[in-house]
Design brief:
Elements lengths: L2 E6 L5 H13 L5 E6 L10 E4 L4 H10 L3 H9 L4 E4 L1 H6 L16 E3 L10 E5 L8 E5 L4 E4 L4 E6 L2 E7 L2 E4 L10 H7 L8
Parallel strand pairs: 1-2, 1-3, 3-4, 4-11
Antiparallel strand pairs: 5-8, 6-7, 9-10, 10-11
Length: 197
């Protein structure tokens, strides 16, 4: 028996996330079957869900147009784990700007491109709550969380939250899939606290 991990594949680092979630599963002797989510009908069969980075306005438009948005909501309501990275964090958040139709599943306000444009990309070794050693995080046109609301802040850069957890969702402003280190995927998708009613 294997776990089914859906990667929203309308845009972004799909293959990198697929590889990372498979490696994370191996640490628990879990076989992971990865399915790309390009239209409605796939998410209901998924145990785990990943919403990659990319361009947040495009991702938000396509998840609504393709019928994926309500299925993401239902996945979260059922307490199933989600990892949302960079633009995925923006799309799942409460608010960003008028160009993004946010899903409001993660109680965060996000500032797009807060750490600069493509040329301002950087890497940082982050202390992340739940990980024993610093995590090598890649920030590319990264957003920043300006209000973490009811979320647990897992990591900060220059005092600004860049990783949060709320219920079954972990959101990051950085790209954990762009490293060989699968610990963030493990933390988000396998080390999930029980859902309390």
């Amino acid at each position: 028996m294997s776990l089914v991990a859906g990667v929203v594949a309308v845009q972004g680092n799909v293959s990198e996330h697929a590889s990372a979630v498979s490696r994370a599963g191996e640490t628990y002797d879990e076989r992971v079957e990865v399915r790309e989510v390009r239209s409605g009908g796939v998410v209901p069969d998924c145990d785990l869900l990943l919403v990659p980075g990319g361009e947040s306005t495009t991702i938000s438009r396509l998840v609504h147009a393709e019928g994926i948005a309500p299925e993401i909501r239902s996945h979260v309501e059922r307490g199933k784990p989600v990892l949302a990275t960079c633009a995925g964090l923006i799309v799942l958040g409460r608010t960003a700007d008028e160009r993004v139709d946010c899903l409001g599943l993660l109680d965060v306000e996000v500032e797009r491109n807060a750490f600069g444009r493509q040329r301002d990309s950087f890497e940082a070794r982050l202390d992340v709550a739940g990980l024993d050693e610093p995590f090598p995080a890649a920030f590319i046109r990264a957003p920043a969380i300006t209000d973490a609301g009811a979320c647990e802040v897992l990591a900060r850069v220059d005092g600004r939250p860049v990783a949060v957890r709320q219920g079954p969702i972990v959101g990051t402003a950085f790209h954990p899939e762009l490293t060989d280190d699968a610990r963030l995927h493990r933390l988000a998708l396998f080390d999930v606290p029980p859902v309390t009613q």
